[in-house]
Amino acid sequence: MSKLQGKVALVTGASKGIGASIAKELAANGAAVAVNYSSSKAEAEKVVADIKAAGGKAVAVKGSVADPDAIGPLVSTVAKELGPISILVNNAGIYEFAPIDAVTPDHFHKQFNTNVLGLLLTTQAALKSFDPKGGSIINIGSVAAGGVPTASVYSATKGAVDSITTALAHELGAKKIRVNSLNPGMVETEGVHAAGFLGSDFHKEVIARTPLGRIGQPKDIADIAVFLASDDSTWVNGQSIQAAGGNRL
């Protein structure tokens, strides 16, 4: 039997990149998956179609985690269509690099509203529809939590994700809900391509600092997410797991 059979997963920001790969791997392991998207409807529906073509169960659900008013309806739709949630992957996030002299209130709030407040409010709403038997919350952080030049605000949001993970692991343990952070390094996604990182000096520096000699692929991260979602990690709680081939920036 598939290790996630009978479980319902909500993956935020799952229309592309790491989120899409996680959604597909959770489904491949038996979970019914809600593929959340904010604006990329066609891409989310493609992820759902791929899951169904492989014999899995999935639905696409719209809702921006940066909009507090959209989060409640998003979670309610998932619970109505698929049932009580037992896996929440807080993947939705944004990043903007800027040196300190270019940091503005808008730059700050845009990233914190999605990466931190959105994560908190999504978790809060999901808990109201969580399986009474417990489950797993996986917060997608970043090795950038350690601090990256020209990314002070983004790094701060991911540092906050690690802190939230520790706090919620203690707070929700009594409910049999485990909370862990999964922190990738550079991963080859649509966003990394669009940002022009591939082939850049930064890309080459990352590879040079990575003992395994490459950047990550979405499935590298998705496989770890499946582990954290399953009973294979039943004794793993409150951890920040680095997934960057040994590169800690």
Overview of the structural elements:
This protein has 249 residues and is of the alpha/beta class. It has a single domain, classed as Rossmann fold, CATH 3.40.50. The chain contains eight helices and seven strands; from the N terminus they run E-H-E-H-E-H-E-H-E-H-E-H-H-H-E. It has helices at residues 17-28, 41-53, 68-82, 105-127, 152-172, 190-194, 201-209, 218-229; strands at residues 8-11, 32-37, 57-62, 87-90, 135-140, 177-184, 240-243. A seven-stranded parallel beta sheet has the order 3-2-1-4-5-6-7, with helices on both faces. Helix 1 links the parallel strand 1 (8-11) and strand 2. The longest helix has 23 residues, at 105-127. The radius of gyration is 17 Å and the shape is globular. The N and C termini lie far apart (39 Å).
Lay out the secondary structure.
Blueprint: E1 8-11, H1 17-28, E2 32-37, H2 41-53, E3 57-62, H3 68-82, E4 87-90, H4 105-127, E5 135-140, H5 152-172, E6 177-184, H6 190-194, H7 201-209, H8 218-229, E7 240-243
Which key features would you list for this structure?
8 helices; Rossmann fold; seven-stranded parallel beta sheet; EC 1.1.1.-; KR_dom; 7 strands; alpha/beta; 249 residues; SDR_fam; globular
